[in-house]
Amino acid sequence: MPILHLNFQKTKNLKYIYAIRLVREFANQLMVFFLPLYFFNIRFSFMSHFDLSPLQEGIFNVMIVLLLTRLVALFSAIPIAKILNKYGIRHGFLMGHLLYSLFVLCLYLSKANPYLVLTAAIIDGFQINFFWNSYYYSISRNSDQAKMGANLGAVNFLLHLLAMIAPALGGLIIVTLGYQTLFLLGLVIILSGVIFSILLNNVKVKDKISFKEFLTWLKEPGFKRLAVSFAGKYFNDASVSLWALYMFILLGSTEGVGYLYSLSLLLALLVSYTAGSFIDKHKNRKQFFISGGFLSIFWALRGFVVGIWSITILNAVDRLTSSFHWLFFDRSWILRGKGREALSYFVYREMIYSFAAIVFWLIVAILFYFFVFAWKSLFIVAGMGVLLTLLVKEHQGESN
């Protein structure tokens, strides 16, 4: 039973890393789940110069904010990695939390000045590199390879538990007290993560990270294949954020979207609870391929759901399947990062995510500007992204 056996065999750092992730995810599920809805309703004055429908304007708002975030993340990745090399991983966690707090503060103040959302996007781009590269480096360094799946499964169980509660709570807060109250609560939760960051041992890294090395890695067939799988993962994740927006447009209720999303996670808890240990023991890619195929089909079906029960059922079966699929995926690519040049590996992964984001949001802009069936087309793109994740391998020479 993985929830009772989080493995801290190597260092006490691991329990603090898990605590940091849980605090972070609670804030994410409380706020970030609803951010596409918030960005969708923001009104930038310069958008009035374009002949756009309300739907197009809202989608372009989301695109501008998230594209700006990833552009900043792309160009700041290597400079921030050098800071981590100089000051250590604990510094990355602390800076990640403090910058994320500034990000939320800008969102809180954006009610009076919508352009602070763009400032928030820039700050978010910096914090991505500080926090996530530090987090994945630490997970890879401190986890036992034989128990990676079990540990990730246990953590995912707790993440799903938070995700089941937080969206419903967030939706209720938005309806009753407004976005600003939600942002204030999120700010308090994020700052609590600073405490666990301070308790971490400060690990110094000596990787030589450069854009030249990044290009050299991309020439290797194994890493190129892995890069494509990372791009597919971003396509899926970004589409999930827009799926929340799609549900809001269909249902017309922020609170309803939160409740539906929370309900769909109930079944996913069971899979997260048991799948990690199963993957550690069997490591069978056949189930991984089957789950990826089903997830792609579920994305295609999203374009045809219009009722509350069809959305609920589709969300439930999707979550049930995705719990196994993404656990296998995460275990594979994180284990690939163990060993020398681990920080380089995770930094270059984040850069690939940023490249993929630029491509994805340009596709979104084209779909919603030129095509009538934009949502259905978007869901097809997301399904193709899932299929690309099937390229991931735990080891470069691993066979399918």
Describe what you observe in this structure:
By secondary structure, this protein is mainly alpha-helical. It has one domain (11-391): MFS general substrate transporter like domains (Growth Hormone, Chain: A), CATH 1.20.1250. It has 15 helices and no strands. The chain has helices at 13-31, 35-41, 54-87, 89-109, 116-142, 148-176, 179-199, 211-218, 221-251, 254-264, 266-282, 285-302, 308-336, 342-370, 374-388. α6 crosses α13 (308-336) and α10 (254-264) packs across α13. The chain starts with 12 loop residues before the first helix and ends in a 12-residue tail after the last helix. Mean pLDDT is 83; it is low at 1-5.
State the main characteristics.
Growth Hormone, Chain: A; globular; disordered N terminus; mainly alpha; 400 residues
Portion in helices: over 70%
Average residue-wise pLDDT: 83
Structural class by helix and strand composition: mainly alpha
| Domain count | 1
Radius of gyration of CA atoms, rounded to a whole number: 20 Å
Share of residues in strands: under 5%
